[in-house]
Each structure stands twice: as C-alpha cells, then as structure tokens.
Amino acid sequence: MRLWTYRRPFNYDNDNYEIRYSFSFTTYTSQLYRNGHLIDELTGNFIDELKVLTHIVHSDDAGNTLKVSVGYINWWTVGIEVYHNDERIYASHPDKDIYFADKKLKKLAGTNAQDTETLKQERQKQSAQWRKNKHSIFADIGLGAAFFIVSKTTGDLTVAAFTSIALGLALVVVQRFDTY
Q1: Is 0.70 surpassed by the pTM of this model?
Q2: Which fold has domain 4-106?
C-alpha cells in the first residue's frame, strides 16, 4: 500500500523528466520518467537501510551520462540532484543535502558502536515487534478516529465518549475470542 508520492520534475536536453518517489510502510521506490514514459525504477527497503537512490541514464552520445539522485533532505521531504557527466546541473533544493537521512542514521549507528550483525538482529527484532503490535496500534487509532468523527458530526462530546466506550468494550470482546 503506497502511502505518499513525491513528484520532482526537471528539464534536460529538451526533454521533460520527472522523479516519482513513493513509499509504503516497508519500502520506498523511485521512478524516473522521460516525457511521461518510465525509463528507470529503483526500490529500497526501510528495514535494511535508507539510502540515496541514483538513476543512471546513458545518452546516445558517447560518454554522456545523466545521473539523478533522490534522497531525503529532512525527515519529511525528498529532494533530487541531477548531474550531467558528474557536473551538477539541477537541484530541487539547492541549499539542502540529499544525504541527510543517510548521514543521520550512520551517525546514530556510530554512537551505539554496534557491528552490522548486531544492527541486523536489532532491526529484525523491531520488525517482529511491529508485526506483533500493529493491530493494537491500528485499533487505538481507529477508536480515536471514531471519537473524533462522532464528536464532529454530532457536536456532543458525551455521545462521542459513550460511543468510544461502546466500541472499546466491543473491541475487548472481539480480542478475547480472536487470536489473529
């Protein structure tokens, strides 16, 4: 399930290019389009690492290479940098570093001074915990959303509170007999 898609258009050599960077709960995908046609696609996994993806397009001219790098410039936004023969010709956010997340995560890993095997085991443990607890988290979010929706539609907080209580008790009964 795709959660969000960033679009970063740019022009090069009289062609319209666009990067579409999308992510789900576990993966992220970067697609490079030229004049509306997909020409390259790269996918990464949040569980393994969060790295900058680089699309490489070789032109018909000998030795000319177009590189498009996509990475997070902060914890919420991605940016792109476009290079022609290793010379930067475009940046969506010129004053920002697209290696922001990569550097932060490496720095965080360096402060714990763990080897790669320990980090991999820790990520697997966290992934297992997420799989185990995600249903409870979604149920809590759903109850909160139900309270919000009922309070907004009726304008009465008492009705919203009693509705949430009823839904919470129903959830307890369902969880008692369901072992997912």
Answers
A1: no
A2: Lipocalin (2.40.128)
